[in-house]
Specification:
Number of helices: 3
Structural class: mainly alpha
Strand content: under 5%
Radius of gyration: 16 Å
Order of helices and strands: HHH
Helix content: over 70%
C-alpha cells in the first residue's frame, strides 16, 4: 500500500474511532447497512473492472461531499469563534 493511501485509511479510521469514543460505542459486531454495502460493492466493481477514468468518476462524488462538508464545518467553526 502506498504511503498516501495508508495515510488516508488511517485518518478515516481515526475519525470513526473518535466518534466511537465520544459516543461510548465500539464497532465490534457491526454490520454494514444494506445500502452502504450495495454502494461500496458497486464502487469496488467499477474500480476493479473499468477504465481509470470511470474509477475516478465513481469516487469523485465522495471527495466532493467531503470537501463541501469540510468547508461548511470550517465556516461554522469560524463563525462560532467570532462570538
Amino acid at each position: 500500500m502506498k504511503e498516501k493511501e495508508h495515510g488516508v485509511k488511517v485518518a478515516e479510521m481515526e475519525l470513526h474511532e473518535s466518534f466511537f469514543v465520544e459516543w461510548n460505542i465500539n464497532a465490534e459486531g457491526a454490520e454494514q447497512m444494506p445500502y452502504c454495502l450495495l454502494n461500496t460493492s458497486y464502487m469496488k466493481r467499477i474500480v476493479a473492472t473499468r477504465c481509470h477514468a470511470e474509477g475516478l468518476a465513481i469516487l469523485l462524488p465522495c471527495a466532493w461531499v467531503y470537501m463541501y462538508v469540510g468547508k461548511k464545518m470550517l465556516e461554522l467553526r469560524q463563525s462560532l469563534g467570532d462570538r
